[in-house]
Amino acid sequence: MLADVGAAFLLVAHGPQPIARFVAVLVAGVAFYWAGMILNDVFDVEQDKAQRSTRPLAAGKICMTRARVAGWLLLAAGVVIGSISGYLPGGSEYPMTWLPAAISVALAIMIVAYDGPLKKTPAAPMAMGACRVLSFLLGASPCLAVVDGQPLIPKYLLGIAMGFGVYIMGLTTMARREAVGGPSHNLPMGWIVTVLGCVLLAFAPQLARGAIVDWNVSPRDTFPLLIGMVAFPVIIRAFRAVRDPAPAKIQIAIRIGILSIIPLAAAYAYLGAGPVWALVIFALVIPSIVLATKFRVT
């Protein structure tokens, strides 16, 4: 979540200014992500006791009460800090805005909905995709002025956010078979949705047609090629998992897909803020790969 939140801000502001809002929205994004992870285990503790008894909460290594309190406190912190980001100093270019507060509340509700009642339903992939849409919009929101007669969020930003959401929805649909493998309509359907998400990410900036936007690369040719280079390994790995649905192949495809969110976000940071900030976002790949060797990311 740190990558797409940061990339969204950099895309709209063309850099990390105003720095107070940039830092605040990044902290809010981290708080939301940690809250989602903790509450996910809190809601699943009984199932984990039966199926994955070595997990910290299920094994009793972490106090259930403390985990629950930490999860809800982090969720509240995400809402508060995210809301504040719209009221921090932004100069005449970025007036105070209530938009981050509205998106923060919506994101908190969707995180709880996914972790709780929706996870075991067919709506789970859509809920996870919605979380990713809202996290991207949260990153952009401190730089979006609320002006009467104009849309709250530009079409191109909605398109990009939907691209990330559809991409994650596809991966989540495929991941429903990661533990058992075997033929399932979830796999080809998830692959198709993932490809659609990549297409949206490649071409959504063109929705800014007519608006005055200072891109660092052409959104018509160079940028789609850049997204295509990042997305190609994901699409190929996922297709292989569809053809040979062994659990290991599905898990590898999902892992690569999740880690690829960072270079996809870096491409958007490059589009809006240039190569230096793109490298800053891309550098998040290093800790992500290290953590992926220690923790389950699928």
In total, the number of strands is 0
Average of per-residue pLDDT values: 90
H/E element string?
A: HHHHHHHHHHHHH
Number of domains: 2
Query: What is the end-to-end distance?
Result: 15 Å
Which strand-content bin applies to the residues? under 5%
Q: Spans of 5+ residues with little confidence (pLDDT < 50)?
A: none
CATH topology term of the largest domain: Tetracycline Repressor, domain 2
Largest β-sheet summary: none
The global form is: globular
CATH superfamily of the largest domain: UbiA prenyltransferase
Explain the overall architecture.
The protein is mainly α and 298 residues long. The protein has 2 domains: 1-147, Tetracycline Repressor, domain 2; 154-298. Helices cover 69% and strands 0% of the residues. It is built from 13 helices and no strands. Helix 1 (2-13) packs across helix 6 (124-140). It is globular, with a radius of gyration of 19 Å. The mean pLDDT is 90. Its main location: membrane. It holds the Pfam family UbiA. It comes from Rubripirellula tenax. Keywords: Cell membrane, Membrane, Transferase, Transmembrane, Transmembrane helix. It is a multi-pass membrane protein.
